[in-house]
Protein 1
Amino acid sequence: MHALPEAVVFARNHQQIVALVNLCRHYHVPIISRGAGTGTTGATVPDSGGIILSFERMRQILTIDPANRQISAQPGVTNQAIQHAAAKHHFFWAPDPTSSAICTIGGNLAYNSAGPRAVKYGTTRDNVLQLTVVTGKGDTLHTGVKTTKGVVGYDLLRLLIGSEGTLGIITEATLKLIPIAEHKTTLQISYDSIQSAAQAVSDIMAQPVIPCALEFIDKHAINMIRDFSTASLPDNAGAMLMVELDGNKSTLDEALQSIIKAARNSGCIDVIQAQSEQERKALWDTRKALSPALRKIAPKKINEDVVVPVANIPQLLDGLDQLSSQYKIPIVNFGHAGNGNIHVNLLTDPDDVTLQKKVHECLDKVFELVLKLDGTLSGEHGIGLVKKQYISKELDSTSLSYMKGIKQLFDPDNILNPGKSFPD
């Protein structure tokens, strides 16, 4: 969806944003906060007009505190810049979405973005200590603590993360850092079928060693990225897993054997271990090429990021395969299987009216399947515009009523990203 704002504002500091909110509240003008615009659900589209508040000029890393494992920054700093700054002190920040080179931490906070490392290190919500926020009233709100424990008052910090700019505008964040592991090793494991790979995911996550990444790629995705990859991809495989372990070199070999033992089921074709940093990088470049490759091949695809309990992944993938056959719509699946977060891509032609009708019928069935398997409709992409009409499938009217009450408290004039996250 495309829409033009009435103005774009490039704020440089907190006080300018306070003044902007007060001005917009007085004149009932919407404010849509925007980082790099890498979101996929239309949450930063100014469909109601108003002002785009860009954070392109709020890109300062304010403090780095290695002794307390913290880094503070403005919302326009890119994820990659945070990682580079932290790495100089032998730390990293856990969230690592595919768009990490250009996405901003403000966007990561707005969507509760995660990426492959979430399976071991958690999502954005688990890796933020403090926020400074401007509410829709123009109030300045300080949430969280600079300690790893704290139960004074309600947890407004976790409420604001993932709220897609509908409750407040984040102007500063203190992030939790994690020491970089001494060693990493990466496996590429191929299977004869989606079902075998899905069962392996469940088996891997049922044993004590937690990988720092566990990625799933189906056969359609494997074939799609052959021309984009320098890694050796399996021929005629039904699916592939990428598994990465990190830790001390002395304990990693034993952990690796535990993972391989769990992964080797009757459908396992091959287990390949990256023998160099170059090979490891080639594997990750392959995984990160998936989304751009899909956009090139099917620019109008429907991309969902559903989540189910890990043990239910085999049933999810079976069901998606059946829906693809039933509706004769190609469905490409990949994603962060270690926490059940599968990116479901329905390939479609928006100019074909009949096909579009079938695609949306199929999408309804996809969501029904996910909820039947005790899942959720979005793991990290958010709701924005494109999913808001579906959330009443997951949330009952009482829950939605309480959420609207919270929105009213934070933003009584409905100027912060109006029309997003709630069904019309």
Protein 2
Amino acid sequence: MIQLPEKASCPTMYFVGVTTGSSSIMKVFPAWARELGLDAVIKGIDMPIHAPAQEYRRVVEFMRDDPLSLGALVTTHKIDMYSAAADLFDYLDPYAQRFGEMSSISKRDGKLCAHAKDPISSGLALDSFVPKDHWLKTGAQACVLGAGGSALSISAYLGSEERHGADVPARIHLDNRSAPRLAEAVRVLEYLNVPMSYHLCKTPELNDRIVEALPAGSLVVNATGLGKDRPGSPITDSCRFPENAIVWELNYRGSLEFLHQAQAQREARQLTIEDGWTYFIHGWTQVIAEVFHIDITGERLAACDRIAREMR
């Protein structure tokens, strides 16, 4: 049984994760709070991966019943939290319902609310490093390694013809080692018109084959959690990235094996490499805005970005 925090004595936001104490947000949040004029603190709630359903319910019930516990950002546990505790919420936003996950817990007008912010924050991050008209000009594809909440959100954003018109990948590949989760991805993403390929890859060697077959300029994303919550990489050291590929490691802390594999090939394969830092900024500011009912765009967002980078 996990140790819940004591009842909050001041406005409090929580970070529900696995190893929250080592996250940069624990140092960054107080500085952001000062910048944003928030009289609030942040506390971590660490839970083992795939904790029992009752534990997720205990966490949600604690926040619901404690007046000064205003909400939380949820990472790693987004899908499990939704599966175990969705019925405890008064409002589930459309993204949460579509993707079966929650990354944001907040309260508004006496109602307990859950939002899935990944489709927004992942899109903001992608737009910062994927050039405009990249897919139209290159005919490249995308390969998302993993089928968790972040992976589905990224796939949905990349494949949104409504948002991007014809500037979408020629094909999106989704690789995962779990058949049930892959089947769920097929169900969730069936509305996309972009060609999709789903691959059951139980070993890194099978992921290697998909990545190496991608055309030049393709996007390869590590959305597995490997290299952060658990050591390792979804590909082997011998995997060759496509030439001129864009490689995105969603993590910014941890052992980061996938990132190091890409860095070893940066010059030879002319890779563009991104870690998860920009995603971290957008992910947190989106949820903080929801929890505290404030706008964090424009100059405020720029200030938060500057503060975080100075403290990195």
Protein 3
Amino acid sequence: MPELPEVETVRDGLARWAVGRTITSVQVNNLRSVRRHLAGPEDLAARLAGQRLESAERRGKFLWLVLPADLALVVHLGMSGQVLVQPPDAPDEKHLHVRFSLEPADLELRFVDQRTFGGVLLDQTIDGVPSTVAHIARDPLDPLFDDALFVKRLRARNSAVKRCLLDQTLVSGIGNIYADEALWRARVHGERLGAALTRAQAVDLLAQVRDVLGEAITAGGTSFDALYVNVNGQSGYFDRSLNAYGREGRPCGRCGAPIRRTAFMNRSSFWCPSCQRPPRVQRHAGLG
């Protein structure tokens, strides 16, 4: 599933190529891709026609295009959603589900989704944030992210720190890949309790999260297959810089120990048994 760097890469592309244009028409080829717009595809198309795309915004993994009158076109990428900017005469993609014709007419937006877990909807905004996104916490790259509050809340939790990083009500945008990478850099095992971290460890972990996300954005995100691409159909290359995720059995770049993989929430965690020692007895009070 796309995480913050991948969504930010798409947002940046939309800001460059789509913002300032006006939607002239909407063609829905797959009803599942507009299922979140409860009023139906005809209502979505009618209300979007004539709307100017004012800006492209993101919170965590959530992406939206700002429209006039406190409206937003929210895009859920799901597992395999893509938002492509294409010339109208480009061949249709196999899984093209929603087409947004634009003015000027030299480009159009296409929502492509192989697995159809994603979708689009029209939503009202509250203080600039769509109502369907308002419950999501700010992400670490948000200028208004509260570091002290995050550290305090993380150290108050008696649950595994990796679970905390994936909790979108605590901090948004971090998924399985970047959680493993940040934990490796911070030398913290994912099963260690948030409450067992010292304040210094929690602060360092947040710094590592920011560094990983920033470097991944610079690389255009992480692409393990063709399902994630930017608006121009290009893959990211941060997978070449991964130190833990997907490297089971390969030597740790820091100490040489073979990276291990363990099951985690129907997914996998990758970690170094030497640099990230598994917790033994964990105290549940904040330390340090």
Protein 4
Amino acid sequence: MFLGLTAGLAWAQQDNSQQPSDPVAEAARKAREQQKAAPKPKKVITNDDLPAPADNSAKPAGPAAGGQAEVSTTQGQEEAENNPKSEAYWRKRFQKQRDKISSAEQELDVLQRELNKDQVQYYNDPQKAMQQQYSRSDINEKTAKIDAKKKEVEALKQQLSDMEDELRKAGGDPGWAR
């Protein structure tokens, strides 16, 4: 019986292969054959495929050995940043000072917000409320911190002003301070 069943399946497969197939399936087969025979499209290079350009102002214009050129430009940049008569040196110093000022001003802003919150805060615990009304210790502490931070900001701004005077005395361009 098993032989009869397998023979019937084999006869059905042969019969299906001889019958005309579906026109959609036939079109798909032809399309696949044409894709195999067609030449592959050429690669189109876009800006996304190219590496990001480096700072071209520091690179030498002429052809040079790749490794030596990179080493010499990084050494030149380090020397320029350490030379007190170079633009890179002054710009780096001014940027560091402005970053310090910005950080101190943000800390001052946070302290002032906390003080404002404490001034309108309501204490559920009557003992804590009476203690704060009497001594106002948390408000006094934050006020002292704010005063200290304001002095720090003023000192940093004075240092920035002194750096501008130092730049002028060194003969640098005032635009380097920006």
